[in-house]
């Protein structure tokens, strides 16, 4: 993936303003999308974080503040029908939370049984307590007091098909209507394969047709060390303390990192 695909926050703010005011471009995008155009994009400029299930971790907080900086409405695009597989680190991270204990010890705590939930839709996964996985993470937003908009987009994804097809239509929304927060140029081999094999062809197709790339800015800084990586997965203090208390009340075990 070409590293130049990402815009800085200042570039994204100025570019989106210019493209949004280009009514002809917006109408062309909406016409191509047709029934695949998400109506939430019609009336205001959106900042999108695409997470199958969103949790208000520090990565989310960064996205939220960046969205405010570039004057877009922070919005979470979710996919609850996506399958839970424990070898996917992002999905596993929904059930293995990073926390800091009262003594400063960095730990993980498993709030779900991975084997019992393997290959279930995320929307059907349950925690050891019996609570739904989605409900648990969404309820954490009540602790943070941050109120993004949510788009549960499973029906849209199903209608279009495989990721190799729907990412083109998804990325069309970021030509003139919003900014996608996504880091595409680093990660493990599988993530790089996704960037090169799924995202890059869709971006190239858009560039060839419209002469511009979709607007994408990094969802987190690159070249993170282990300490910084823990930070993005963990939570602000009040939410961290809530999770620690929850785990203790449920009799869950903490594992030191």
Class by SSE composition: alpha/beta
- Written as H for each helix and E for each strand, in order along the chain, the element string is HHEHEHEEHHEHHEHEHHE
The rounded distance between the terminal residues' Cα atoms is 32 Å
Q: Care to count the β-strands?
A: 8
- The shape is globular
Strand order, largest beta sheet: 5-2-1-6-7
Strand content: 5-15%
**Number of spatially distinct domains:** 1
With helices defined by DSSP (H or I, 4 residues minimum), what is the helix count? Answer: 11
Mean pLDDT: 93
**What is the rounded Rg?**
19 Å
Percentage of residues in helical conformation: 40-55%
| Unreliably modeled segments | none
In oligomeric terms, what are we looking at?
single chain
Task: Characterize the structure shown.
This protein has 257 residues and is α/β, with parallel strands linked by helices. It has one domain (3-90, 117-222). It is 45% helix and 13% strand. It contains 11 helices and 8 strands. The strands form 2 sheets. A 5-stranded parallel sheet has the order 5-2-1-6-7. Strands 3-4-8 form a 3-stranded antiparallel sheet, with helices on one face. It is globular. The model has no long low-confidence stretch (mean pLDDT 93).
In short:
This protein is α/β, with parallel strands linked by helices and 257 residues long.
Features:
257 residues; alpha/beta; three-stranded antiparallel sheet; 8 strands; 45% helix
Write the layout of secondary structure elements.
Elements: H1 9-20, H2 23-33, E1 46-50, H3 58-69, E2 73-78, H4 89-92, E3 96-100, E4 106-110, H5 114-117, H6 133-144, E5 149-152, H7 154-160, H8 163-172, E6 178-181, H9 189-210, E7 216-217, H10 226-233, H11 237-249, E8 254-256
Parallel strand pairs: 1-2, 1-6, 2-5, 6-7
Antiparallel strand pairs: 3-4, 4-8
């Amino acid at each position: 993936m070409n590293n130049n695909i990402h815009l800085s926050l200042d570039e994204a703010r100025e570019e989106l303003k210019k493209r949004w005011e280009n009514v002809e471009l917006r109408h062309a995008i909406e016409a191509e999308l047709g029934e695949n155009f998400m109506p939430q994009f019609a009336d205001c400029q959106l900042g999108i974080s695409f997470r199958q299930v969103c949790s208000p971790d520090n990565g989310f907080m960064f996205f939220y503040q960046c969205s405010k900086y570039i004057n877009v409405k922070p919005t979470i695009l979710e996919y609850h029908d996506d399958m839970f597989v424990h070898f996917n680190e992002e999905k596993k991270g929904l059930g293995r939370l990073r926390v800091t204990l009262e003594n400063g010890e960095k730990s993980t705590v498993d709030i779900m049984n991975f084997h019992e939930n393997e290959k279930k839709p995320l929307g059907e996964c349950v925690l050891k307590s019996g609570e739904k996985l989605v409900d648990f993470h969404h309820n954490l937003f009540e602790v943070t007091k941050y109120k993004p908009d949510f788009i549960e987009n499973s029906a849209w994804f199903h209608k279009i098909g495989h990721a190799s097809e729907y990412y083109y239509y998804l990325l069309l929304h970021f030509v003139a209507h919003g900014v996608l927060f996504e880091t595409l140029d680093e990660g493990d081999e599988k993530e790089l394969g996704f960037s090169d094999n799924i995202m890059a062809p869709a971006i190239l197709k858009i560039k060839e047709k419209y002469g511009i790339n979709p607007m994408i800015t990094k969802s987190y800084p690159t070249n993170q060390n282990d300490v910084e990586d823990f930070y993005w997965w963990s939570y602000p203090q009040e939410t961290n303390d809530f999770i620690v208390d929850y785990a203790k009340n449920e009799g869950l075990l903490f594992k030191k990192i």
